[in-house]
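# step 3/5: fold
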Amino acid sequence: MTPDIPELRSLNNPNSVIRISYQQDVPLTERVRRLIDCAEFQYLKGLSQLGLVSTVYPSANHTRFEHSLGVYHLGLRYLSHFLSFPSFSESVTVHEMEIFVISALLHDIGHWPYCHPMEDMQLPEIPSHEARAAKSICTGDLANAIDSDWNCTPAEVSAFLSGQPASTAQRLLYSMLSSPVDIDKMDYLQRDSLHAGIPYGRNFDQQRLLSGLIPEIDSPRIAIRSKAFTAAEMMVFARYIMFSEVYWHKTVRAATAMLQRSIYETALHRSIESIFHSQDAEANTFLIDHCPAQKLVTDLLGPTRNLHKCIFQCTASSHPLIFQRIAGMDYSELSNASNSLQTELGFDDSIGTILIDAPPKELEVQFDLNVVDDITGQLQPLSLRSPVVRSLATEQFDYHVKQVRIFVAQTESSGVEGHHSLEDCLLKSISD
């Protein structure tokens, strides 16, 4: 029996829908529409899902608004699927499912322009998007809408999204939002791939994977049947390829390094608080107007595209000493190392002529997913069952996809390309 949740009823018999790419009809109920119509959710229309990726893939201009609707739709599909298991339907209450439904819709509500590159900098003045989400959910129109229409509180939704599920059943539901095969990844891989115009993030069978999900009530978390093993393996591999070819593409990282240094220099001289309340276009204008490194910021955000050029890159295996010293550096250390290298290479003190780009401390890939044998019922970790996933887990793909790179301003690149002592200068700069 389907629980009395209007959103689940609307999944198969919608009275109203929003259509998003690609030919996807997202079912709406009146109370979901009231959440979507709140200013805090409408704000997501002005936030690009992929930010600076559009410097390489110009059609990758979809928004966090669209992605949030896609995740919400998948959340309903996950719930509908899991309710076919008596162990799930008997252990999860309507109250807990409503928390999950709202959380799926609002999971990105705390974001701002260039949120993830800014968070990677770990500057004290940059908040976490989780903290901003909690504030948005627990105050204003969103809080009023949740209090008026739903059988849960804004505080319960905020706690769930913060990774603090309050019960065993909520931990199971949370794994549907954060796991190797969660609704967030399943949507953004395919949506990002679609809008970027590339196939890599769509090379897994979403329906086969979804139909193979099962609940591990005792753990509690989601697992997969053996029949969905290949689909899960391909999803993990698709994520690896998307990081390699899209999110950490060399030119995307050049733009990201320029953005981070522009933000850092701006924050040294004035408050950057307004960025956290801006949409993309407003944030760009703020940086152009206030960043002291005017050439750097206009090369990135001005009318002419003039991105820095990569003159060196390395992985954890190709240059282990350099990688180990640079990866995970605090941004102030990275800025100082860039300045030092700039001096070592004989450049003047113009801000950001040389930029070192480093992987952040936080690692990306999750592999904690069990495969349940369809005949014996035995559990086996996906990383043991799959040589592809095992290799990624053992080698840790962050250390290979997320490379250390050195970028130089286009106008100065001819003076440093092929520099015979570049690596020696770099080692000296990061040892100072």
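# step 4/5: annotate
The CA atoms of residues 7 and 29 lie 6 Å apart.
# step 5/5: archive (pending)
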